[in-house]
Structures are given as C-alpha cells and as structure tokens.
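hey can u run this one w/ magnesium ion bound, need the structure tokens asap thx
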Amino acid sequence: MAKIFCVANQKGGVGKTTTAVNLAAGLARLDQRVLLVDLDPQGNATMGAGINKATLEKSVYEVLLGMAELAAARVRSESGRFDVLPANRELAGAEVEMVELDNREKRLKDAIASVESDYDFVLIDCPPALSMLTLNGLCAAHGVIIPMQCEYYALEGLSDLVNTIKKVHAKLNPELKIIGLLRVMFDPRMTLSQQVSAQLEQHFGDKVFRTIIPRNVRLAEAPSYGMPGVTFDPASKGAQAYIAFGAEMVDRIKTF
Ligand code: ADP
Ligand code: MG
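ok here u go:
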C-alpha cells in the first residue's frame, strides 16, 4: 500500500511545491510509482509537472466535492513518469463548499484510498495556510514533510504547524507523524544558515532529514519549462539533492 505524505508549512514561498514536484520526479527515477496531489488553488505543482491548469477537464476540486472519481481526474505528468491530481483556481471555492458536506476533513483520504494500490508514494502539496484543504491533506497522510529555510524567522510559525499536527493526530488521524524537517534553499556560506541548521538538529534530532537542498537557480528556472528541476537539469546540484532526498525517503519508509 502507498505511503502518503503531505508537504506542509503554512508559510508561502518556503519551497513546498518545489519539494513536492522534485521529490515526485526523484522517486519516479528510483522506479517508485508516484501520485502527486496538488492541493493549492494556485496550481503551481500542476504547472510544474507540465500540465496546463487552464485546460483541465477535471481536477482535485471535483474529487473533493464528490463530482468525479480520483481515477478519472488524475493525469500523467509531462515527463510521463508520475501521475498528478491537478488543481486550479476552482479549488479555492472548495473551502466554503465543503463546509456543508459530511466527513469534510476526510474527503481526500477517502478519494486516495480508491487508487492507493496503484502507488508506492502519494505526495500532497499543501496550500500556505492551515485551512480545510490542508486539514484534508493532514487527515489523508501518514507523515508530514516540512520544508524550511534556515533563517531566523523559520522557527517562528513552526510551533503553530506542530500544534496543528498534534491536534490532528489526537482527534482525526492517529497515524499522522512528522516524518521530518527538510532544510531547503540552503546557503552554506551564511553563518546564520549554519547556526539555524545546527539548532534544528539539536532540537529535532533525527526528525531532520540528512539531505540538505541547496539554493540552486536551476530549480527555480525549471517550472517555466513545465518540468521538475530533476528532469530539467538532472546534473544540477539542486536536482542531485532532490534525487538523494528521494533515496532517503525510500530508506525511511522501510522503518516508518
Ligand atoms: P511554496 O510552495 O512553499 O510557496 P515554492 O516551492 O513555490 O514555495 O518556492 C518559492 C520560490 O522559491 C519559487 O520561485 C521557487 O522556484 C524558488 N525555490 C524553491 N526552492 C528553491 C531552491 N532550492 N533554490 C532556488 N530557488 C528555489
Ligand atoms: Mg506552493
């Protein structure tokens, strides 16, 4: 059965989507069967996987509202290596529309259950808010991957996320764990980055992934070509780091 991970952090611009898309591509290179779920109305993961969000026939929106089966809404990424449950602006309406539905926190979980045997990994790219959409991600997942930049303010806000995860664990999803903190956009020349990174290791121990994702312009350029960095320039430092992260995840789930 698939292992399901949410990539979450309520801050915007911290590397969630870059992580979700490149981890999907990295895992696919390791012959893992992957479904990438875009849970952000911005549709960045959809576009980053080479899918035009403007011309979707069906999306995660219809799936959450029970108007389409996940199996009918998923599409193949441009590289052909992994599947995507795409999103676009329509999804913003789901927040409000789901309020009236029963089982509203677990709609994504139920949808994923219908295709779970097709995959080794399901990766969910969450929006930058602790919203009903993120709650659906957290209720569907076995683990949370938290990307963070090693800067002073990174630690602020982390406690809100950790508390939300604890509450979801206690009330809605007893399987949920923080699988790890992923250091992203890392600049080893900055003393502050080194210090925050060391603090994270001290405080969170083996909840900090060994792999560190460097700041690398090829990762930032790749989405404009509709490709994950891992596919766009596999030899780049950023791509290599995400491929290594994929291997670390494959290793982690053995004991997860
Ligand atoms: P989020 O999904 O958390 O909002 P994104 O993944 O969209 O964050 O990243 C925010 C911006 O930072 C994007 O422009 C992205 O291309 C860029 N970015 C993310 N990770 C890296 C990295 N390791 N090196 C360079 N740029 C990065
Ligand atoms: Mg994003």
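The longest strand covers residues 177-186. anyway lmk if its weird
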